[in-house]
């Protein structure tokens, strides 16, 4: 599983419980963080080292849920665009790692809670979508990558989080890993001036997800839009 997000902490809000479930069963999960997070935080005293601080927060959070590899692309926070350069970076990483599932922030805006749809989030989702189809699987796209031995690859599944509620189609019961998710989020201390309030809000969202997904009372869930890209249900070559 290869996860693309815009900022350090995005993946922990959206999918850390699911990732903890997967790594516990032996799945290899890697993260790719597109921006350097320099526009985040709430304290002036953090400004001189905010980029390295946020990278270390993300590494610590990743390690807690069993993720060893975190890639940082280093784009400027708040200015991310789905450029040819960014798409090429995504294509290169996917072709190198050849994941069964690519997980990404959603490219469509969520009007119910616009905070899910930071412009960088949308740019991340759009770049990943453009990369997965058709560039990753087109042997003639980005020929310089093929020249480096990174051949075309067909991604089976694309999972989105943070998109419009009406597009959600897959609920993952993360009840057994809620505390792992919360501990991962607590590593991002530079982003949360009120940790307790953040904790209560995230737990409430997880409970609401579970209720919406039809899980029994007391359960917690993360929610996604799962898109088949190259499966038995899809047709390639058209």
TrEMBL record:
SUPFAM superfamilies: LmbE-like. The keyword Cell division does not apply. GO terms for molecular function: hydrolase activity, acting on carbon-nitrogen (but not peptide) bonds, in linear amides. InterPro entries: GlcNAc_PI_deacetylase-related, LmbE-like_dom_sf. Pfam families: PIG-L (PF02585). Keywords: Zinc. GO terms for biological process: glycoside metabolic process. This is LmbE family N-acetylglucosaminyl deacetylase. It comes from Arthrobacter pigmenti.
């Amino acid at each position: 599983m290869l996860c693309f997000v815009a900022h350090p902490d995005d993946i922990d809000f959206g999918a850390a419980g699911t990732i903890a479930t997967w790594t516990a069963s032996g799945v290899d999960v890697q993260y790719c963080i597109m921006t350097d997070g320099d526009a985040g935080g709430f304290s002036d005293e953090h400004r001189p080292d905010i980029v390295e601080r946020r990278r270390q927060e993300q590494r610590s959070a990743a390690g807690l849920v069993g993720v060893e590899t975190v890639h940082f692309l280093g784009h400027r926070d708040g200015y991310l665009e789905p450029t040819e350069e960014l798409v090429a970076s995504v294509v290169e990483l996917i072709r190198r790692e050849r994941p069964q599932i690519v997980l990404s922030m959603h490219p469509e805006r969520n009007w119910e809670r616009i905070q899910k749809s930071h412009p960088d989030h949308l740019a991340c989702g759009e770049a990943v979508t453009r990369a997965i189809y058709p560039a990753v699987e087109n042997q003639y796209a980005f020929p310089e990558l093929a020249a480096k031995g990174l051949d075309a690859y067909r991604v089976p599944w694309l999972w989105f989080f943070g998109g419009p509620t009406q597009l959600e189609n897959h609920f993952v019961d993360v009840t057994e890993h809620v505390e792992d998710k919360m501990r991962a989020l607590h590593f991002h201390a530079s982003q949360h001036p009120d940790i307790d309030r953040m904790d209560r809000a995230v737990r409430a969202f997880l409970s609401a997800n579970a209720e919406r997904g039809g899980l029994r009372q007391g359960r917690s869930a993360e929610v996604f839009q799962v898109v088949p890209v190259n499966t038995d249900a899809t047709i390639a070559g058209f």
